């Protein structure tokens, strides 16, 4: 399926979804819809320098972590497990960042990432973290990790809807091209370069520098596939789906190195993923408990902030100025607008680089105004709260991950799949994922800025309506849509040698950067790695 066919299919499916929705509205009471535009309007006020910078009070602290996503909480985890507790967290725009979750009564669902692949040996930091949380319970005689059964995805784990029926797995057929591609992946899974390192490793910084393989970063995945004479529509759709799922952009946009890294980076052969009803929000909340993080509603009036146990505050950084004595960080309360000035000895900047660019008083010192930022992909994460389950075709069973072949959506995940019950629960949530790449990211962000809930709904619901038709709306009580206009950085061609990332990765001062942006690859292991590395550098100075 080429790009023209993709766009035509997307337009048809969107029109069908809209017609189904508006037809249903005339006959039934429609469900409520909530659209959250994550970070707005505060992020745009910050970008446009429209936020007052007068502080009501000044404070001093030893270590300040900016952000509460995977990188920030990984820094905090490493601090706490090494006996260091004198730090505070400014939560940022959203609690837990891209690991955030949604709660409706007793129902939980993800509004960000929904699973964690079993980490490879190179991601020792994540394995240790999972061990601390009781998820990784030990190793077998061959050195393979043993995970708690309840944390591994239950069967059936995935299925694909193609040609009017469901198929097990995410490939409706295994043709000659598909078999050839996965035989190649088996070959490179544990291949090492001339420097002895794995060609593809997670964290990416541990990958081989072998020039022969790094050349893959000079062309798109689509171009490489064409060079290798892969022509199967099924395979090309599947590879495009995988890239959109992890990178937010398809095979025409991502680097060939990134495309192969998706399959070979961990070296896991058909290993079950780790997942929970609220996705990686579960991990984030478990980390908060592990470090005994104490949430506070506002900063105290005390000038010197000293913490026996770490504390978190609902503030976002709006200005950062580093000098020889400390780092001056202006924090703004996300609800009240209360503004405080923090003089910190150390700062971990665990926020996207595109935000950091606008709040550093001298961004050129860090390469933020000197070099090109990563490209960012817009996403929708949409929770359809159901008061009853739609009927599945005969001889089929609802899976955890449900994907529609040929769709521009990424399918939907069943939040209650991990619950062990004799019968289905009374309610559930189907979480639909959509990488909005039917136009340029800039054009989509411009559209999202003024989009109303019913403008976004057809994109959110396209896969569900393709499977269940308009009768699906009979089961829906509420729709909760999270629009992430800059959801993830994209590993475009040349990302491995991007000057900004190389500068940020090696930067050392009172400010330390920690975010998956530093790998241009938005997965938990990468964010956790940079978070731990930042914490290590601060502990080395203690």
How would you describe this protein?
With 542 residues, this protein is an alpha/beta fold. The protein has a domain at 59-98 and 279-374 and 492-541: FAD/NAD(P)-binding domain, CATH 3.50.50.60. It contains 15 helices and 22 strands. It has helices at 3-27, 42-47, 70-81, 124-132, 176-188, 211-214, 221-227, 233-247, 256-264, 281-290, 353-359, 441-450, 453-468, 499-506, 524-541, and strands spanning 32-37, 57-66, 87-90, 101-104, 107-110, 115-116, 136-139, 145-147, 158-162, 165-168, 274-275, 294-295, 311-313, 315-322, 327-333, 339-349, 375-386, 401-404, 412-414, 428-435, 476-490, 511-513. The strands form five sheets. An eight-stranded mixed sheet has the order 1-21-17-20-19-18-9-10. Strands 2, 3, 12, 13, 14, 15, 16 and 22 form an eight-stranded mixed sheet that branches. Strands 4-5 form a two-stranded antiparallel ribbon. Strand 14 (315-322) and strand 15 (327-333) form a beta hairpin. Helix 1 (3-27) crosses helix 13 (453-468), helix 3 (70-81) packs parallel to helix 10 and helix 3 (70-81) crosses helix 15 (524-541). It is globular and about 65 Å long. The model is unreliable at 1-10 (pLDDT under 50).
